[in-house]
Design brief:
- It contains 18 helices and 23 strands.
- It is globular, with a radius of gyration of 27 Å.
- By secondary structure, it is of the alpha+beta class.
- Helix 3 crosses helix 12, helix 5 packs across helix 8 and helix 7 (142-163) runs antiparallel to helix 8 (167-176).
- It starts with a helix and ends with a helix.
- A hairpin with a 5-residue loop joins strand 22 (477-482) and strand 23.
- Helices cover 41% and strands 24% of the residues.
- A seven-stranded mixed sheet has the order 3-9-10-16-13-12-11.
- Bound molecules: glycyl-adenosine-5'-phosphate.
Length: 514
């Protein structure tokens, strides 16, 4: 575990050192849980967004995109339930003055119990070797059974307190299980209070009668309130979807794990409107379709799993998360929810406007049902970055850090490098770079030895380096170095261009989805 934490710290440091992610306002000591994307980060992020956007809007005839405003009428958030129920239970430690999410403290305690069980299993596996039967051990070992019973008891009590919104019992659980503040080490806790996660600000001057408005905590509501506009102006027939990419804001109490939980982040959401009764069929369709989108990246099929929700929101009739194996465990990257007609019906009620679809086949009007797919751009960025990072030992005791990004997502697709800074090689290299840059993000670098330049490109994940040498001046050929294998081929520039088009284009990824 400690090792994985170290790996994660190294990845975070690498992301800063190579211009992927910076702490926001760093020269003022930073702003907690807010990050800026640097020169390489923004390219990677844009490529992830393009992959999602094109998979949604270009590969599906019946999905269109929108870009709605961040500010929305305050009634939107009343209707959606966010004003009344978008809360986290918080608790303060009086000694350290640190604030925590009560549910996270308890979940961490459950995690510790699970760790104890896993340790027992690992110890026994070592002791018994090949003859070890893990499932039998878990079912019969008295110590493991005791830990499991305690964990299940805590889990059941915690789930009930959360479901009943019982803040008194949440605090009591923290006291009963002796959970201490990680900073002060004391149990000097305040009561648990609900904390609304929406950021509020004012629109208009006070003299005009300023209105409280919120920074949107999800992009989905911008889609719901535009359902009728898009359906009518696009003459859309059910089933159809509306996709959107945009910023969302949440005043997270505990922001942890770098860009995994941020206060300002970006979402890629798609609401798919269907006939009532068809929703579970389409839920299943989107569950599979979205998993295929993730796996097409080739980050490793074993790194993904579904986490189907047992406990559903009162308006949902199915929900699952796609989880990815981060260095800090399997974590949610995307949610897929069957939201019934809850949101549209609420907006119908609060706005007083009819939000219905006339179904020509059934000859009747109804409020459509919705399947939502919702993925965080930043979390997706983190999955790609974590799985790409590799410290490789090379022959001769040398080593390199390489980001093995899927080529289509790599921030820079190729680097053109003159072998030496004389004899007309820089001019020839510039000529090649100027030809390639219309189609590919293309670096030019002539500083330092060729080896150092290769390492710099490896460290930002550039899939191909094109080296221009004296032979280039004679026959027009260059060497093309492959990032992952470090192999080099002698090729004409036409061939280089053809290979690049084939290997780094988004099309090659999108074709895997059909
Ligand atoms: N419209 C549904 C919705 O917003 P959610 O599960 O709250 O559902 C969807 O969020 C996705 O947005 C998550 O799976 C995650 O990838 C991303 N996300 C949510 N909160 C985030 C945060 N504080 N920082 C970064 N990403 C976040």
């Amino acid at each position: 575990m400690a090792k994985q934490e170290d790996v994660f710290k190294t990845i975070v440091a690498h992301a800063k050192e190579y211009g992927f992610v910076f702490q926001s306002s760093e020269i003022y000591d930073g702003l907690s849980a807010v990050y800026d994307y640097g020169q390489n980060g923004v390219e990677l992020k844009n490529n992830i967004k393009r992959y999602w956007w094109e998979a949604m809007t270009m590969l599906h005839d019946n999905i269109v995109g929108i870009d709605s405003a961040i500010f929305m009428h305050p009634s939107v958030w009343k209707a959606s339930g966010h004003v009344d129920a978008f809360n986290d239970p918080l608790i303060d430690n009086r000694d350290s003055k640190k604030r925590y999410r009560a549910d996270v403290l308890i979940e961490d305690e459950i995690g510790k119990m699970e760790e104890k069980i896993n340790k027992e299993v690992a110890k026994a596996a070592k002791r018994f070797g090949d003859s070890f039967d893990e499932s039998m051990f878990r079912q019969t070992n008295p110590r493991v059974l005791d830990y499991q019973r305690k964990r299940d008891e805590l889990h059941a009590r915690f789930a009930k307190a959360m479901e009943d919104n019982d803040l008194v019992d949440l605090k009591q659980i923290i006291l009963d299980y002796g959970i201490v503040c990680p900073v002060s080490g004391t149990r000097n806790w305040t009561d648990v209070r609900q904390f609304n996660l929406m950021f509020k600000t004012e629109m208009g001057s006070t003299a005009d009668g300023a209105m409280d408005v919120y920074l949107r905590p999800e992009t989905a509501q911008g889609i719901f309130v535009n359902y009728l506009n898009v359906q009518k102006t696009g003459r859309m027939r059910l089933p159809f979807g509306i996709a959107q990419i945009g910023k969302a804001f949440r005043n997270e109490i505990v922001a942890r794990q770098f860009i995994f939980r941020m206060r300002e982040f970006e979402q890629m959401e798609m609401q798919f409107f269907v006939r009532p009764g068809d929703e579970l069929k389409y839920f299943d369709f989107w569950r599979q379709t979205r998993m295929r989108w993730h796996k097409a990246l080739g980050l490793g099929d074993d790194k993904y799993r579904f986490h189907d929700h047992e406990k559903l929101a009162h308006y949902a009739n199915a929900a699952t998360d796609i989880e990815f194996k981060m260095p800090f465990g399997f974590k949610e990257v995307e949610g897929i929810h069957s939201r019934t007609n809850f949101d549209l019906a609420q907006h119908e009620k609060f706005s007083g406007k009819k939000i219905q679809y006339f179904d020509p086949e059934l000859n009747e009007s109804y409020v459509p049902y919705v399947i939502e797919t919702s993925i965080g751009v930043d979390r997706m960025f983190l999955t790609v970055l974590c799985s790409a990072y590799d410290e490789q030992q090379l022959e001769g005791g040398d080593s390199r850090v390489v980001l093995r990004f899927p080529a289509a997502l790599a921030p820079v697709k190729c680097a053109v490098l003159p072998l030496v800074k004389k004899d007309g090689l820089p001019e020839k290299a510039r000529e090649i770079q100027h030809r390639l840059r219309f189609d590919f993000t293309c670096h030019y670098d002539e500083k330092d030895s060729i080896g150092k330049r290769y390492r710099r490109e490896d460290a930002i994940g550039t899939p191909y380096c094109i080296t221009v040498d004296h032979q280039t001046l004679e026959d027009g050929t260059v060497t093309m170095r492959h990032r992952d294998s470090m192999e080099q081929q002698r090729l004409s520039v036409d061939e280089v261009e053809r290979i690049l088009k084939e290997e780094v284009s988004l099309n090659s990824l999108l074709k895997k989805l059909l």
